């Protein structure tokens, strides 16, 4: 063997040894880092070369362009669009441009978001030149991401560069060739600081080493960024570019702040049928439904279409009007629409209390289409549910707020545009605070004012015309009082979790504290029934939406332990009516792009059905007198549970309970009390637990006297009259 070949062999062996040593060292280093920090540490190690590819100030710099003809050359997109990315013209509807460029071009984008906000883009696909700390790393540079109150090392509100210079960047790896068309930016979400980027460049690459800047006739395009930290700003690329990587390079920033950004990238992934990774992760649906965002007129038309398809099981009605006079339409689904059937429980879904939380609205519209289609197809599960349940679907509680969000578009409304009613009220927290009345009564046992543990009356001050109560809230309360709902879910957005009452802490000195209801075990089961059947809520591998990791409770949370809220719809429903209500947060993105709706439907479809089926868990029955007549307003008590319910107008009742054996009592004014043991099994279907009670002797006497036109005479008055007669006789 020649010396040269030996030398080459030694060199190759030495290289292999060094590579092995390097990998071992990297492994040891990663083990030395806490588990929570390993991914971030490895990401920073792998990105270190990227930062040093930028020269220090004063050095020459040329890496943003690729030479034509080289491998990996960036090319302009072909004018033909791929048919799989057909876009609604109303999606991402841009505002008119302003002098400061806040805007949003006059034509809608051609491609949907890649998914930074929806978490389709993983943390491993986001890289940055530097970061101030872990909580301000590239993984936090997502559109609309929210910071924790303390803005700590783990959960802050943007990517923030470690230095303020012209050589900072944040990069997205699309993991496949993508036609990039636009960029949406925000500043840092923070209660304590103001940071945003006022201008930036956009660069693209096929290999993350050689970069091409977006250019026009006069050179590199400098895009105008934000002028404050919350309003999203959209900039379209002059010409769509096809590449794998896209990088944002800030050029100027708020002079009293630093380089901080949240962003979303608009782009159309190009078809790649040979890529197993993408085929495996693509979500499709076989349901033939109307997957689009519906404005008020379109929502009403869709309801009519469903009613026309299924006239025998659907009914459209309204529960009132919004501040601007829009009717609050609901759809009833039942085998006898418009009629309460004795012994049949009533269920409700509502959505859109926050007008900008649009996903819940569309899920309810999809649900009514799905149930109609499946009923006509003879799906036994859906047929059984419709025949045994009266279902009410109210998709838009706050249509005025939705209209504002809809006009801005799915990515451009920010975190709060359209959240409140037209008169600035948050419907979700606009109900009477009955918790305080109950707890004050329980704490002051000697108080003359006794408050029942159920059906607590609404305070007089709340009913006055001067009270700050939205007309939409009053309409919902009247609806809740009119119909004997048993179970309900209000669909919200911005998180992936199911929250159950109480939503208000009992202690005056705490903002977060687990505050259970007497039915805590039932509520926890109801929450878990939705979360466990959702495709993502209980997935331990998924990333937290913003700052809270709800995996320790399997995708559920007690509302008060999350953040205290007085006057929530959940607490009011539990304390004022028989209905158990939960808040279901159906997605990280409040207003997902239209192209995301099929996947969101698949994520939630089974959960929506399973949760409705829980209305048939527990006990049910009819409370009658000896003549077989139903007794309304009778009180149903369960031993060991300090919360009662009442019978409806026909004497029927439903009491949600987990499997077990219960001692159940009934009492009604003028009737003798009765008690029996009722057993709840594990199979779906409520246990029948009827009561027949008789009138008390006093009630019978009063009834007889009224029947013959006489009023009962008190004993003391009778004695006085008798003594008077005796005195007259003696004279």
TrEMBL record:
<dbReference type="InterPro" id="IPR008969">
    <property type="entry name" value="CarboxyPept-like_regulatory"/>
</dbReference>
<comment type="similarity">
    <text>Belongs to the peptidase M14 family.</text>
</comment>
<dbReference type="InterPro" id="IPR050753">
    <property type="entry name" value="Peptidase_M14_domain"/>
</dbReference>
<dbReference type="GO" id="GO:0008270">
    <property type="term" value="F:zinc ion binding"/>
</dbReference>
<keyword id="KW-0325">Glycoprotein</keyword>
<feature type="compositionally biased region" description="Basic residues">
    <location>
        <begin position="92"/>
        <end position="102"/>
    </location>
</feature>
<feature type="region of interest" description="Disordered">
    <location>
        <begin position="77"/>
        <end position="107"/>
    </location>
</feature>
<feature type="domain" description="F5/8 type C">
    <location>
        <begin position="109"/>
        <end position="268"/>
    </location>
</feature>
<keyword id="KW-0732">Signal</keyword>
<feature type="signal peptide">
    <location>
        <begin position="1"/>
        <end position="32"/>
    </location>
</feature>
<feature type="domain" description="Peptidase M14">
    <location>
        <begin position="292"/>
        <end position="615"/>
    </location>
</feature>
<dbReference type="GO" id="GO:0004181">
    <property type="term" value="F:metallocarboxypeptidase activity"/>
</dbReference>
<dbReference type="InterPro" id="IPR000834">
    <property type="entry name" value="Peptidase_M14"/>
</dbReference>
<dbReference type="GO" id="GO:0006508">
    <property type="term" value="P:proteolysis"/>
</dbReference>
<dbReference type="InterPro" id="IPR057246">
    <property type="entry name" value="CARBOXYPEPT_ZN_1"/>
</dbReference>
<feature type="compositionally biased region" description="Basic and acidic residues">
    <location>
        <begin position="77"/>
        <end position="91"/>
    </location>
</feature>
<dbReference type="InterPro" id="IPR008979">
    <property type="entry name" value="Galactose-bd-like_sf"/>
</dbReference>
<dbReference type="Pfam" id="PF00754">
    <property type="entry name" value="F5_F8_type_C"/>
</dbReference>
<dbReference type="InterPro" id="IPR000421">
    <property type="entry name" value="FA58C"/>
</dbReference>
<dbReference type="GO" id="GO:0005576">
    <property type="term" value="C:extracellular region"/>
</dbReference>
<comment type="function">
    <text>May be involved in cell-cell interactions.</text>
</comment>
<protein>
    <recommendedName>
        <fullName>Inactive carboxypeptidase-like protein X2</fullName>
    </recommendedName>
</protein>
<dbReference type="Pfam" id="PF13620">
    <property type="entry name" value="CarboxypepD_reg"/>
</dbReference>
<dbReference type="Pfam" id="PF00246">
    <property type="entry name" value="Peptidase_M14"/>
</dbReference>
<keyword id="KW-1015">Disulfide bond</keyword>
<keyword id="KW-0964">Secreted</keyword>
């Amino acid at each position: 063997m020649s010396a040269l070949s030996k030398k080459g062999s030694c060199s190759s062996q030495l290289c292999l040894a060094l590579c092995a040593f390097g990998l071992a060292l990297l492994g040891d280093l990663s083990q030395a880092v806490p588990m929570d920090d390993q991914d971030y540490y490895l990401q920073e190690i792998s990105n270190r070369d990227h930062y040093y590819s930028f020269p220090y100030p004063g050095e020459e710099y040329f890496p943003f362009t690729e030479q034509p003809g080289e491998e990996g050359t960036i090319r302009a997109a072909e004018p033909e669009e791929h048919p799989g990315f057909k876009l609604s013209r109303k999606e991402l509807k841009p505002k008119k441009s302003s002098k400061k460029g806040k805007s949003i071009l006059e034509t809608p984008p051609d491609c949907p978001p890649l998914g930074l906000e929806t978490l389709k883009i993983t943390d491993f696909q986001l890289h940055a030149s530097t970061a101030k700390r872990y909580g301000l790393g590239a993984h936090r540079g997502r559109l609309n991401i929210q910071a924790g109150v303390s803005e700590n090392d783990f959960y802050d509100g943007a990517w923030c560069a470690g230095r303020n210079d012209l050589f900072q960047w944040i990069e997205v790896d699309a993991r496949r060739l993508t036609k990039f068309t636009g960029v949406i930016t925000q500043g840092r979400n923070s209660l304590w600081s103001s940071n945003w980027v006022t201008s930036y460049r956009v660069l693209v690459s096929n290999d993350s080493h050689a970069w091409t800047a977006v250019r026009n006739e006069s050179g590199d395009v400098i895009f105008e960024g934000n002028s404050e930290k919350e309003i999203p700003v959209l900039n379209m690329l002059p010409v769509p570019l096809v590449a794998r990587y896209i990088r944002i390079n800030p050029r100027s920033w708020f002079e009293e702040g630093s380089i901080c950004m949240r962003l979303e990238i608009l782009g159309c992934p190009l078809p790649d049928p040979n890529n197993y990774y993408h085929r495996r992760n693509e979500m499709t649906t076989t349901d033939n439904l109307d997957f689009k965002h519906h404005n008020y007129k379109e929502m009403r038309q869709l309801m009519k279409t469903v009613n026309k398809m299924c006239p025998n099981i659907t009914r459209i009605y309204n529960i009132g009007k919004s501040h601007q006079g829009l009717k609050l339409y609901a759809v009833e689904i039942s085998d006898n629409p418009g009629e309460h059937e004795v012994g049949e429980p009533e269920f409700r879904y509502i959505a859109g209390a926050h007008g900008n939380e649009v996903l819940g609205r569309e899920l309810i519209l999809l649900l009514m289409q799905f149930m109609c289609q499946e009923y006509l197809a003879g799906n036994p599960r859906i047929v059984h549910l419709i025949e045994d349940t009266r279902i009410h679907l109210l998709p838009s509680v706050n249509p005025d707020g939705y209209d504002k969000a809809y006009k801005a578009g799915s990515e451009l409304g920010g975190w709060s545009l359209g959240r409140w009613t037209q008169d600035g009220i948050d419907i979700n927290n606009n109900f009477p605070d009955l918790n305080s009345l109950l707890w004050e009564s329980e704490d002051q046992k000697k108080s003359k004012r006794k408050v029942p543990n159920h059906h607590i009356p609404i305070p007089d001050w709340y009913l006055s015309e001067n009270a700050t109560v939205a007309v939409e809230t009053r309409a919902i309360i009247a609806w809740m009082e009119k119909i004997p709902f048993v179970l309900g879910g209000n669909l919200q957005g911005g998180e992936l979790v199911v929250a159950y009452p109480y939503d208000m802490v009992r202690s005056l000195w705490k903002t977060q504290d687990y505050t259970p209801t007497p039915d805590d075990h039932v509520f926890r089961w109801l929450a878990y029934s939705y979360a466990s059947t959702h495709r993502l809520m209980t997935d331990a591998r998924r990333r937290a939406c913003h700052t809270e990791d709800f995996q320790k409770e399997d995708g559920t949370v007690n509302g008060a332990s999350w953040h205290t809220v007085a006057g929530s719809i959940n607490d009011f429903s539990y304390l004022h009516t028989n209905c158990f209500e939960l808040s279901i947060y159906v997605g990280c993105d409040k207003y997902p792009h239209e192209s995301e709706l099929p996947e969101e439907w698949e994520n939630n479809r089974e959960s929506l059905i399973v949760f409705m089926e829980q209305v048939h868990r527990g006990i049910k029955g009819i409370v009658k007198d000896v003549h077989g007549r139903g007794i309304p307003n009778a009180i149903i008590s369960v031993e060991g549970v300090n919360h009662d319910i009442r019978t409806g107008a026909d004497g029927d009742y439903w009491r949600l309970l987990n499997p077990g054996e219960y001692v159940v009592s009934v009492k009604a004014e003028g009737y003798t009390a009765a008690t029996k043991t009722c057993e709840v099994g594990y199979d779906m279907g409520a246990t029948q637990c009827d009561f027949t009670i008789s009138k008390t002797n006093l009630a019978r006497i009063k009834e007889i006297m009224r029947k013959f036109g006489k009023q009962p005479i008190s004993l003391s008055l009778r004695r006085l009259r008798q003594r008077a007669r005796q005195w007259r006789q003696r004279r």
